[in-house]
Amino acid sequence: MALSTEESSRLVALLGGQADRVTTRWTEIVTSSLRGRLSQAELRRQVQDLHGAIVTTGEQGTIDLSADGAGELRAALSELSSGRARQGFSATETTISVFALKEVLAELLQEAGGPSALQDYVAFSKLVDEMGLYTFESFVRTRESLIADQAEQLLELSTPVVKLWEGVVAVPLVGTLDSARAQVVMERLLQTLVDTGSPYAIIDITGVPAVDTQVAQHILKTVVAARLMGADCIISGIRPQIAQTIVALGIEFGDIATKASLADALRHVLRLTGVETARRQPRRDI
Predict the structure, then answer these.
(1) Rounded distance, CA 163 to CA 185, Å?
(2) Residue closest to 11 by CA, chosen among 104, 75, 96
């Protein structure tokens, strides 16, 4: 929706002629919808930025949100959207901050009167609607980007590679192991093997609820990749139910060492590294 030159001029005169009153009233309306979740100073700054962008765009001639001349207005709307998305506001709360301008315009046009007041309000409302839609779309893009970044961070946190001692690292897996997560596991394990020079790695699947063909293939690929790096892998956490499933599926781990628990895997690695383990004898009172 593009305003004509005459409509743009009247909008600039309406908003620019009473700038302080407009921003104050606009801020009051938005404040009530946000219920104090944003400071008055920050909210007023956002309103002033939007107000200034609208006036500046209108002074150039026709206000058209899709035109090159409306770059400053689009930037102000995008900044509002991205800021609110990072602060945890909803898309509705963000868009309402733009739609609140309609109420301000209605009050100003009612006071000004004139034969074109109703026509101007309809035209200005369409412009505000377009601004609100642009704000909503910008908010959604920012929120999707934030969710994607958070998902990637959670994926990395859910696949830690722990150095147990010199020469031995462990990967405790918890939850479902899909293709994306398996790739992260492989990358992090291989990088850790390079950084530490460890010849042994324990892949513990105690926290994996179920092992199917796909999960088994992911584990086998990780083991093969580690072997190419010169490290042997031990798979631990093979519970009875998982063992039965693996046999039923006909999956073979070949010469890969498998242990029922992480403790068994640790004892196995200790033997391979030549570290002697001794059972602690009970203390005898004299």
Answers:
(1) 14
(2) 104
pLDDT in tens, 167-208: 888 888 887 777 777 788 888 888 888 888 889 999 888 888
* Buried/exposed code over 218-257 (b: 16+ C-beta within 10 A; e: otherwise): bbbebbebbeeeebbbbbbbbeeebeebbeeeebeeeebb
User: At 189, which amino acid appears?
Assistant: L
Under a CB-based contact definition with an 8 Å cutoff, are residues 203 and 223 in contact?
A: yes
- Among candidates 181, 250, 259, which has minimal Cα distance to 221? 181
Distance CA 229, CA 179 (A): 21
Rg (CA), the chain: 32
Question: What pLDDT band is residue 49 in, cutting at 50, 70 and 90?
Answer: very high
Q: CB within 8 A of 150, min separation 6: which ones?
A: none
Give the sheet arrangement for strand 162-165, strand by strand.
Answer: 162-165, 168-174, 200-207, 232-236, 257-259
